[in-house]
Amino acid sequence: MSFEDGADRLLVTPGSELYVKVGRIMSNERVKRPVPFAHKLNESSSIGRVIGVVSGKGGVGKSTVTALLAQQFARKGLKVGIMDADITGPSIPRIFGLKDRLKAGQYGLIPCVTSEGIKVVSMNLLLDDETEAVIYRGPVIAGAVKQFWSDVYWGDLDVLFIDMPPGTGDVPLTVYQSLPIDGVVIVSSPQQLVSMIVTKAYDMANKLHIPVLGLVENYSYYKCPDCGSEHYIFGESKADELAGTIGCKVIGRLPIDPALARLSDEGRISEADIVFDLENE
Amino acid sequence: MSFEDGADRLLVTPGSELYVKVGRIMSNERVKRPVPFAHKLNESSSIGRVIGVVSGKGGVGKSTVTALLAQQFARKGLKVGIMDADITGPSIPRIFGLKDRLKAGQYGLIPCVTSEGIKVVSMNLLLDDETEAVIYRGPVIAGAVKQFWSDVYWGDLDVLFIDMPPGTGDVPLTVYQSLPIDGVVIVSSPQQLVSMIVTKAYDMANKLHIPVLGLVENYSYYKCPDCGSEHYIFGESKADELAGTIGCKVIGRLPIDPALARLSDEGRISEADIVFDLENE
What we know:
Two copies of one chain form a homodimer.
Chain A (H helix, E strand, L loop, with lengths): L21 H5 L19 E9 L7 H14 L4 E5 L7 H5 L6 E3 L2 E3 L1 E2 L5 E4 L15 H13 L5 E8 L6 H9 L4 E6 L3 H16 L4 E6 L4 E2 L6 E2 L7 H8 L3 E4 L4 H8 L16
């Protein structure tokens, strides 16, 4: 990954590692959690693990973290899918530069596939124009999420990531109550305001007995490309404090990175060569 | 406003003016727009103008812009209110440092009041603990917004700002269809991904015949406090391009400002001495 204008190269140093452990997520000792209003998976598909990525508040780079996680799992040789459950504000197709539309097949809707083989389903892959508003009320939005589960021919997946919309409304409630979710990764930023709202997301997961796999702090700091000084633009890191409050582990800190923002914007996230520590614990 | 650590003083220069014109918003020639499912305002209240602040995607500083707008109007001597319609991710009380809870009075719920006399209603002012999740499905969320309109004793207001949640779901739909809204201000950031999603917010307003008063670009650039160089962290400004696409005016550009982020976090937004050009056109 290189940039002509000299923008900082994305570099995840040991101090800013994202180490969601494959071992932890993919272990065989899957805890069977009761799913109160279980919705049936597509008959021709089987999915090993289901991981939600949540944030409480929008704009913290949750979709980028989802994409990077999925990519890293795919590079380990796992069969990976992403369900973009942010029906009214979908970011995933743009991040991967997906231009095609979902097609109907014999066993259900056929996901689009990224250059690294990640299967993606998103409302924006169903629209003729990606800027068109999806003006849905909550129950219809929740219905779309259920259809993404039952009416999509996912085939065999080792792990499905669900990119959730901000807030604690219909979509997370439906995902938590109707899909066999194994746990959630929470994405936050150092702003206190964000931490307050992210605690709501944790509170919801907790009330519904969903395990929290860990906390990722994005936009941790900015390194001036001209003088090299580091700035806590959105405040000093609150990751440890927040993780303490909600009783989970900090599993990563990512800097504010114009290069990564640009890769997301231009659909070139697959060029991000971040090496996360994904080994077993 | 000053900071010990030498963080940049917030300075809105002529090139980064936010000039939502009082003349435009408060003109007497109010266009009567049909409200298909009109919900009745609290009987003991009267509200002159209703202005929505929308963003499509979260995390662009919409609530901060709402607070700054309201503050500026209040400083002009107008009677101002803010309805925080982001039921599951409310930011407004924290930004103003409001600690009290709403109380029931003879004519309805009594708003909390900021140091500058702005009346504020928010779901977080009804919770015992601000980090508690509000796990509501869409129709209940929309119902809460309606109650904020009919069951709150607003008294006489010149202008009410409605801080909307991200997305194009229940809340904006309810506000557009049930409240006599005069127009919306759209808040965006330079990231292309955000622009794509903000266009959805515009598309929704357009389909429901809601006038767009203008576009505010937040997080336009960052000025390194150490060397003074300016960086387009989230990409070059796309405000003009975006405004051209959606056919509205750019009414402001704000820099990424750690000082402003901190004032928001610490509930000290009233110390922001931004001088917006709010004169008549």
